[in-house]
Amino acid sequence: MRLHRNLCFSVIDGLTLIFNEGKYADKVIQQLLKRDKRWGARDRAFVAETTYDIVRWKRLYAEIAEVKEPFDRDNLWRMFAVWATLKGIKLPDWKYFENTPTRKIKGRFDELSKTRKLRESIPDWIDNVGLEELGEAKWTKEIAKQNEQADVILRTNTLKTTKEKLQNILHDQGIATEFIKGHDSALRLIERANVFVTDAFQKGLFEVQDASSQLVADFLDVKPGMKVVDTCAGAGGKTLHIASLMENKGQIVAMDIYESKLKKLKVRARRNGVHNVELKVIDSTKPIKKLYNKADRVLIDAPCSGLGVLRRNPDAKWKLEPEFLDRIRATQQDVLQQYSRMVKPEGKLVYATCSVLPSENQNQIKTFLKSEAGANFSLIKDKNVFAHTSGFDGFYMALLERKG
Ligand SMILES: C[S@@+](CC[C@H](N)C(=O)[O-])C[C@H]1O[C@@H](n2cnc3c(N)ncnc32)[C@H](O)[C@@H]1O
Fold first, then answer.
1. Which value does ipTM take for this structure?
2. How much is the CA Rg of the chain, to the nearest whole Å?
3. Dist. CA 237 → ligand 1 center (Å)
4. Residue ID of nearest Cα to ligand 1 atom 15
5. How many angstroms separate the alpha carbon of residue 360 from the centre of ligand 1?
6. pLDDT digits (tens, 9 = 90+) for 125-182
7. Does ligand 1 have an atom closer than 6 angstroms to the CB of 231?
8. Domains delineated in the chain
């Protein structure tokens, strides 16, 4: 691979914004990709993947390069040189790469890789939490898998097409996909591609959604005609899936504390041809209380640490803080206590997170079931999905039923 100056400069600019100005990696990369209209698919992939890679391996590369935060541009070039050297890419004779100690970089990589938190490039505290909650063997495998790039997975919008038809349509546009066993609506891209620019996407034939995330709506056991409340709907990944499973029949109330997210859901629903979703901002306890005992199904896709989706959001490793984790655990129990009241007798509730930590998952369910609000419920089944065993995102989901 040959390094191109303007692409490498873009990566360094992006890293400055992410590391030094606290900007979100996905947003920064989105902006970077708009920089030069002449960039082809490969150039764009280089900028996106190299930036994500250096974000993912920040701690390890900074240790190898012997630089400390806040990083100046020279520091970032040194980290870039580490990235290129470890990838076996020949460094051009630009001034930024003068005196790059290639052999020393490889030696330090081997040495530092003996320690998990350095090898996997994670803060000490995350390593400690993972170790404490999952044990050495599981945590070591899971965090390694969480550092790999995730596949692109699509969910067929069955309101508009079938998985087989979608596969053919994408094939005609040069995008090869395969089915995934156990995931009825999913297609996996065999090679990465920008699917958002396809006609099929504009027409709402699919959404991009990881295979684990696609299990959640299935878990909720919805039927056409039901009244379903999606309490933490965000931009609606799961709401849209639920609408497909309900064949647009019945009613879905999609709620979130952020109106901005629900606005995105509105746009997506229109593209998907979804007609049975009502949006409600949670700005007080009123909209919740109004729905007490009314819903056949309630989904709590709870806010969480995101420790199951680091493959997609590698900068979360650096943004997460122990205090946030404590606060979010309290929120998780709180939403379980409050939102479970919307389930009617014999109705069902799914609690889900994209975390692999038991303290955000099964332990929350145990606490809930022992509480007064939880005494009305019984656990039907739950499922832990780990990236290292499934190959998809880390997730947890529990299905509870309210007694009659
Ligand atoms: C895991 S995300 C939801 C993802 C979304 N369900 C999807 O499938 O695309 C959690 C959501 O919970 C929302 N949230 C945070 N605290 C909340 C609360 N107390 N009540 C309702 N929603 C909340 C966040 O704004 C966020 O959109």
1. 0.99
2. 23
3. 11
4. 303
5. 14
6. 999 999 999 999 999 999 999 999 999 999 999 999 999 999 999 999 999 999 999 9
7. yes
8. 5-114 (no CATH), 153-208 (3.30.70.1170), 214-402 (3.40.50.150)
